[in-house]
Design brief:
47% of the residues lie in helices and 21% in strands. The chain is built from eleven helices and 13 strands. Helix 5 (106-123) links the parallel strand 3 (99-104) and strand 4 (128-133). Helix 1 (9-22) crosses helix 2 and helix 2 (25-32) packs across helix 3. The longest helix is centred in the first third of the chain and has 31 residues, at 66-96. It is rod-shaped. The two termini are 61 Å apart. The mean pLDDT is 87. Belongs to the LysR transcriptional regulatory family. GO terms for molecular function: DNA-binding transcription factor activity; transcription cis-regulatory region binding. Residues 9-65 form the HTH lysR-type domain.
Length: 299
């Protein structure tokens, strides 16, 4: 005999309370949607656990013993408290799911996501979408540590706890000020010349920097020590326009400047600078709004 109840005994406790309330084990079984033999066995098991006879079975129904009547009152209060606890938890969980926490790399946050967020909010105005901007490594960390529901990065390294999906394709382009010598080249710049030239670059943990370094490595090249390191694409573009040097950035980031002639694109031979923009999330903790937001990307 044991007086400790396990998680499986909660159903038996509900059955006991219903039996007392309805005055019939068969009626309680119907209320719990189980067979009467299963109900009889569950009630006997609860009595064995407690070491107390709870119910007397008669041809006219079931009635509680004096001890059973006392315990039924306690059990009703316990189950009411438990039901209230579960209802509050559901309410909090539902309220939490009216908020989608997104972390995104600079390229995704500045050029890919704004129209998607606007499209999503047009059909789900009650949902709050928050967007935190960080480099790709920090985005991965936020999603893994569950401080973001969904992340957007460039070509992420595999992570054992995260699922990933390609949402767009992109490529890096080399850009210079119109007065830079490379703006006047008539043939693609050799990979060796590009990788051997100190450039203005993003910080090492950024997806843009990682894409360039991986492309150089695949081509058997080593990237020169940067001329300067900046933590945002806008800062790089401003520096290039001022004539400080050349940089590599997403084509999405310089489309307007290339059309306006504020920057010049330098074609490069021998380097594959294409990349995938990807969503990352924790499958074990994803909720409906995560899937809805991903669907808005596809549309």
């Amino acid at each position: 005999m044991s007086q400790e109840l396990g998680p499986g005994d909660l159903a038996s406790l509900r059955l006991f309370v219903d039996t007392v309330r309805l005055g019939s084990l068969s009626a309680a079984a119907r209320a719990q949607r189980i067979t009467q033999p299963s109900a009889s066995e569950a009630l006997r098991r609860l009595e064995r656990r407690l070491g107390i006879e709870l119910v007397v079975r008669t041809p006219r129904g079931s009635r509680p013993t004096p001890d059973g009547a006392r315990l039924a009152e306690h059990a009703e209060r316990v189950l009411a408290e438990l039901d209230g606890f579960l209802a509050e938890a559901r309410s909090l969980r539902t309220a939490g799911r009216r908020h989608v926490r997104i972390a995104a790399s600079y390229t995704n946050a500045e050029y890919l996501l704004p129209p998607v967020i606007a499209r999503y909010r047009a059909v789900r105005p009650e949902v709050v979408v928050s967007l935190a901007v960080a480099n790709s490594a920090a985005v991965i960390t936020r999603v893994a540590e569950r401080t973001a529901d969904l992340g957007f990065v460039e070509d992420p390294e595999p992570h054992p706890d995260l699922a990933t999906r390609t949402v767009a394709t992109d490529e890096l382009v080399v850009v210079v000020a119109p007065g830079h010598p490379w703006a006047r080249v008539t043939a693609p710049l050799p990979a060796a010349e590009l990788t051997g030239t100190p450039l203005l670059l993003r910080e090492p943990d950024s997806g843009t920097r990682a894409t360039y370094e991986r492309a150089a490595h695949r081509a058997g090249r080593t990237v020169a020590t940067p001329l300067g390191v900046m933590t945002s694409t806008e800062a790089l573009k401003t520096a290039v326009r001022a004539g400080l040097g050349a940089t590599l950035v997403s084509r999405l980031a310089v489309a307007a400047e290339l059309v306006a002639g504020e920057l010049a694109e330098v074609p490069v031979a021998g380097l594959d600078l294409r990349r995938e923009l990807r969503a990352v999330w924790r499958p074990a903790h994803a909720h409906d709004l995560t899937a809805e937001f991903l669907a808005a990307l596809r549309s």
